[in-house]
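re: that chain from earlier
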Amino acid sequence: MSTPASHSVVVGLDGSDTSTNAALWGAAVASKWGAPLSLVHALPHDGPLYSPAAVMLESRFLSQVREDGEAIIATARTLLGQQFPGLEVETTISPGPGGTAVIEASDRARLIVLGSTGAGAFRSVLVGSTALHVANRAPCPVVVLRGDGAPPDQRPVVVGVDGSDLSRDAVTRAFEFASFFDAPLVGLHTWQGSPAMGGTSQGLLVDWVTVRQEEEALLAEGLAGESETFPDVSVTKVAKQGAAADAMMQHAKDAQLIVVGSHGRGPVLGALMGSTSQNLLHHATCPVMICRSK
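^ sequence. v structure.
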């Protein structure tokens, strides 16, 4: 098992239950890695002021929210000190918005951890705007805590494999995580198309046995190098037809973490995440790690 560089694990903290769970989850990872934990709290950003009275009112408001922010940080430090007494904890309170503050604090981070929704987010099953902003723009992998917020354990780590560069990075991160937590790994590869597509002449001409063999070979190749680097990780290979997000969410029922690249190998690789990673962030039942290119 290789040891990662001692860059920090950054957690966005806003006082919500989900951000507290993110801090605990991130602390467990940082403790295992021997890395510092960095807690980032964002203050409301300034707006235009039109009168001396408005300046005074905003000054009082900002003073209060800073005190509230310091209290949120202090409460988290106390909790983390009880559960991870040897962990180095750094703190930052900076102007918002939250997504910008987290990204600015993550220049040398190894990992960012966020709750799926924050204190000010609309309470729904969908991921909040801050998490989406950070996952789309962060300079390092981002974990969005979905599900019950349970800390890392020995349940499987599921990684999406599609042969792209981002997929290869996701595979490396997934093996590393599984190795540190003595967890098995499920390498999952999907493809579209099926012999049951219909009776079209095109469908009849496809050798589906060969297609399956080629897709299974792509999966095996995508996992081979890291299997040698992390021989302690037990690997299960799953190759199946269908949508990637649907297959991953099926396996997420028994998993502790899903790891995917921010884009697949499709024709359009823009600045924003692909449909699979977006779908998982909104609907997965366990934490999701999004791996982006530098």
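The domain at 9-145 is CATH 3.40.50.620 (Rossmann fold).
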